[in-house]
């Protein structure tokens, strides 16, 4: 009787028995994510060559806009280190004024992809290509950010970055800026590395990156170190909405950048969603809705002329580990960012650029995932080849060419592996029995012809293709031509064809 009354009461109130109070957990998690987001938003913007306020704007939009939309419950969006190289290249080629149009266009493309239910197809991209893409981004990120550590401006091209390493090493050990920068960067990296390992709970919920920024910034100020610091302006003044005249300047190169932004941001967001879903037991990501949400966020960022956004695994994992229960935590993190930039923007001016560079170097190192690469080399050599080729091509050329190269090689590799063909021949006194198995496609045509041409011409041949799963037109014609040739040479052939010919 008591149980029936409890069930009736629960139905009336709409609550489950022993339902946890999620509000406190979400508020606490939002503060943790906010503390993680602040230095990363600023660092990604600085590395992208745009005003740091634009990185904060993207973080705010990621919380207040994407955070409210359906798709993923615990995934957090904002400016991502993975897009830094792409943004810097776009700004260099097209100018800061065109950034808003590119991000707006990418957002619209993402919305169209989500509405047309293309979100789930991103899950079909080869993981080795994605790993290679992230590793390539990580290498370019590290290569670029070592220059701010030494107090030097980052060169524009990869060749110039490699060529300038000698001068950078000299500057690091001979100039006051270089010595101070490398001291702060190394200290920040040591703090971030040691924080999670040696600081007990619950103190280790405070992000190590934030502690590193606070301590090194304080040291730089107290010691009056000769290092460059972040330049902070007005949030409203830094907004860079595209003008109507900018739309008239859109050309094929800009359209290519829009498509590249959309595809890379979508892939990174949805792969992040797959990883975050494995971290918690709550509702799983609805990929098409998440793609629409990401597109809406990028469209808003484009209107403001801010950085593009993706779902970010660092912030998302911090959100889950901090105990977030609902999407309220990610929405609140955007509100805290807005409150911070309105009330305390001057604090950002104390942060040395060398320290932000250290944060991004660590982010780049994590993108490399060397343990996963080593495991892939041991277990799947061909997949490891695709990964390394993708990463090296990205470093040597750019993100789009490297990713497309990796995808093309992955498709060819898969086609070759899928079209496996076995040929077994049993020779008897007056006849030969040849049995084929697997997939007979044009990729295996040379091997098939090589076996057929080695068969003796004077014997009866029983060619059994009945167990072949797929026989394409090229192989079918090759078999017919060989049969005709064998019969012209006074041989007899009996052919058992598969049920279906492609």
TrEMBL record:
Protein name stated in the entry: SulP family inorganic anion transporter
Domain named SLC26A/SulP transporter: residues: 25-390
Keywords assigned: Membrane, Transmembrane, Transmembrane helix
Listed transmembrane segments: 27-47, 54-76, 96-116, 128-147, 167-191, 203-227, 247-271, 291-314, 334-363, 384-412
Locations listed in the record: Membrane
Organism encoding this protein: Saccharopolyspora mangrovi
Topology class, membrane: Multi-pass membrane protein
Gene3D superfamilies associated with the record: STAS domain
């Amino acid at each position: 009787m008591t149980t029936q009354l409890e069930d009736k009461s629960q139905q009336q109130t709409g609550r489950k028995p022993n339902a946890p109070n999620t509000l406190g957990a979400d508020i606490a998690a939002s503060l943790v994510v906010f503390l993680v987001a602040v230095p990363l938003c600023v660092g990604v913007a600085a590395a992208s060559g745009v005003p740091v306020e634009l990185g904060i704007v993207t973080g705010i939009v990621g919380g207040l806009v994407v955070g409210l939309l359906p798709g993923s419950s615990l995934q957090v969006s904002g400016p991502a280190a993975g897009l830094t190289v792409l943004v810097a290249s776009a700004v260099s080629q097209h100018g800061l004024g065109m950034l808003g149009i590119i991000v707006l266009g990418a957002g619209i493309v993402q919305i169209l992809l989500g509405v047309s239910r293309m979100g789930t197809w991103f899950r079909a991209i080869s993981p080795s290509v994605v790993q290679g893409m992230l590793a390539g981004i990580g290498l370019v990120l590290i290569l670029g950010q070592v220059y701010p550590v030494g107090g030097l401006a980052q060169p524009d091209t990869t060749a110039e970055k490699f060529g300038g390493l000698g001068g950078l090493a000299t500057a690091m050990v001979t100039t006051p800026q270089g010595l101070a920068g490398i001291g702060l960067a190394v200290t920040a990296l040591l703090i971030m590395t040691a924080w999670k390992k040696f600081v007990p709970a619950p103190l280790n919920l405070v992000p190590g990156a934030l502690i590193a920024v606070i301590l090194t910034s304080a040291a730089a100020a107290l010691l009056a170190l000769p290092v460059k610091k972040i330049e902070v302006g007005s949030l409203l003044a830094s907004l860079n909405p595209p003008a109507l005249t900018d739309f008239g300047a859109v050309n094929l190169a800009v359209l290519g950048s829009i498509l590249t932004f959309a595809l890379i941001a979508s892939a990174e967001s949805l792969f992040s969603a797959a990883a975050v879903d494995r971290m918690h037991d709550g509702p799983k990501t609805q990929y098409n809705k998440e793609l629409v949400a990401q597109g809406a966020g990028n469209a808003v960022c484009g209107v403001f002329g801010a950085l593009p956004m993706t779902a970010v695994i660092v912030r998302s994992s911090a959100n889950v580990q901090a105990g977030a229960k609902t999407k309220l935590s990610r929405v609140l993190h955007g509100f805290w960012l807005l409150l911070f930039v309105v009330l305390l923007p001057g604090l950002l001016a104390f942060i040395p650029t060398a320290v932000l560079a250290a944060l991004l170097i660590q982010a780049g190192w994590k993108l490399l995932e060397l343990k996963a690469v080593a495991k892939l080399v041991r277990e799947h050599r061909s997949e490891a080849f695709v990964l390394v080729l993708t990463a090296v091509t990205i470093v040597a050329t750019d993100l789009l060419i490297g990713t497309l190269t990796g995808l093309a090689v992955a498709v060819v590799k898969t086609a070759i592996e899928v079209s496996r063909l076995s040929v077994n021949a049993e020779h008897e006194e007056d006849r030969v029995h040849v049995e084929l198995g697997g997939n007979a496609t044009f990729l295996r045509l040379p091997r098939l012809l090589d076996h057929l041409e080695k068969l003796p011409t004077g014997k009866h041949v029983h060619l059994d293709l009945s167990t072949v799963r797929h026989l394409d037109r090229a192989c079918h014609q090759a078999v017919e031509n060989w049969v005709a040739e064998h019969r012209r040479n006074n041989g007899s052939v009996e052919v058992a064809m598969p049920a279906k010919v492609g």
